[in-house]
Amino acid sequence: MDYEETHTVTRKSTTTFRIQETSSSTTTKTITTPAKLYGKDLGAYDDVDVDELLAQLSPEEITMLAKEVDPDDSFLPPSQRTNYECDKEPTGPLDRKKLIDHINKQAMETPDRPELEPFVPGMVRGKKWIPPPQEKKMQDAEDQIAIDLGDEYEHALSDATQEEIIDLAAILGFHSMMNQDQYHASLLNKGQPVGLGWDGITKSSIQKIFPAEAPNNTNPEEMIKRIKDDDSKLVDVNFNNIKNISDAQFEQLFQALQSNTHLEVLSLTNTGLTDRTALLLAAAIERNHTLRVLNVETNFISPPVIVTLVKSLLTQMTIEEFRASNQRSQVLGNKIEMEITDLVEKNMTLLRLGLHLEFNDARHRVAAHLQRNIDRIRVDKKDGRSSRGSFYRPQHVEERMDELEGVEEEEEEVREVPQDYDVEEDPDNIVIRPPPSDDEDIKKRSVAAPAV
User: Where is average pLDDT lowest: 269-273, 304-308, 436-440?
Assistant: First the structure.
């Protein structure tokens, strides 16, 4: 028994500055009953050796103890964690047909439960349910469903094997009529598994163990130096999954990227890019005119900085593929997605965009614009024009228009007949012949010159 005493002292002062002390004593008794296990306190079991106790138990006692304890270990198979135990010997591999026959046989041999009232054939107890009359439209629709395939198709279906019928059902999309192995085998044209049929079951397959991906052994210092030196052989740089790149190295990399004229592919997936370093990358993209593919997925870039990166693609108009999904913020928001959509619609060279857009409007507009860019590039390649670079840059549109106007003026000047050309007038058209070349002129002079 535990006893606890509490003394409380209260002082009261009056205006005559005399202190009158009043003492009150309160005694509180609290009775606490300790937890016990098998008549003993829990503290008595602290020094008990559990392994020694288990060694003293018999196999039957260990089995009973195992039934009372459920090991909370996910690594143990379920058969070792459950209390159910089957002492029967395995009867062999699973035979589904024999199992169904056995179940049906047991169902037929098991006697029915006795009824309170015996069954009398032809006797109706209670109110008989009469289905409502079917509407005429439904009857007409059911009559129209019957389709006559013709003798040729009916003959082909009647002579088809079970595997061919399964392939036909898979092609028509009736995947609920078969298992996954049969469905994928039909789609991939691999041939149906032998012995399955309509009653086949899908068996578990052994998981394929793939080797672990080799680490990225790229040396950041060496790559940064080669980019800074503008190495003509360095076209693709892969920094994926390198997490020890410092901010100072990122600054050197993006500073060197501004003046590089050979690098085309830059991958920075899972490298720890932040908003600060991503803004430096955006400044480098605005000056680099050879980069075609940029990947900055799985980093810590915020949605506003992603908008800045997409906006920086409009300066040089050379990047064809840009990926920036799986960032710190999974949801961009409607405002950010609309800004990205407006910027993408201004980009005439972007072909692939790796961003998760949540709203349908943004997704459809971006997909439609990227398809238009792909079609435009096909036309440009067919006509022999370049689909990248300064032709689509916004700041050079006026200069390009001036150049086109100058070309048109030169073409108009060319249409005028030069004085040196020989002109033969014809009532239908004008034939313009170029003047003779220097070689022809020399030949004429050599023929006309008198012999010496």
Answer: 436-440
- Tokens at 137, concatenated: 């439209």
Return the DSSP state at 7.
E
Mean pLDDT over the full length of the chain: 76
- Return the minimum-mean-pLDDT range out of 51-55, 178-182, 254-258, 317-321: 178-182
Question: Cβ-count burial of 200 within 10 angstroms (0-12 exposed, 13-18 middle, 19+ buried)?
Answer: middle
Long-range Cβ contact pairs of 33-38 (< 8 A, separation 24 or more)? none
Q: Percentages helix, strand, coil for the chain, rounded to the nearest 5?
A: 45, 10, 45
Per-residue model confidence (pLDDT) at position 365 = 94
pLDDT given at position 121: 86
Residue with tokens 């169902």: 107
Nearest CA-CA partner of 196 in 178, 209, 210: 178
Q: Is 278 helix (H, G, I), strand (E, B) or coil?
A: helix
Tokens of 134: 């079917």
Tell me which amino acid residue 198 is.
W
| Cβ pair 383, 389 in contact under 8 A | no
Phi, psi at residue 43, to the nearest 5°? -65, -20
In this predicted model, what pLDDT tens digit does every residue of 386-401 receive, in sequence order? 556 544 554 443 444 4
Sheet holding 321-323, edge to edge: 236-238, 265-267, 293-295, 321-323, 352-354
440 SS3 class: helix
Alpha-carbon distance values, 370 to 17, 320, 363, 366 (Å)? 92, 10, 11, 6
373 Cβ neighbours under 8 A, 6+ residues apart: 347, 348, 349, 350, 351
Reported pTM: 0.47
What is the Cα–Cα distance from 162 to 198, expressed in whole angstroms?
A: 8
Report whether 27 contacts 5 (CB < 8 A): yes
pLDDT in tens, 184-209: 777 777 777 666 666 666 666 677 78
Residues 6+ apart with CB under 8 A from 327: 297, 298, 299, 300, 301, 302, 303, 306
How far is CA 388 from each of CA 232, 256, 267, 298, 314, rounded to the nearest angstrom?
A: 20, 22, 21, 28, 12
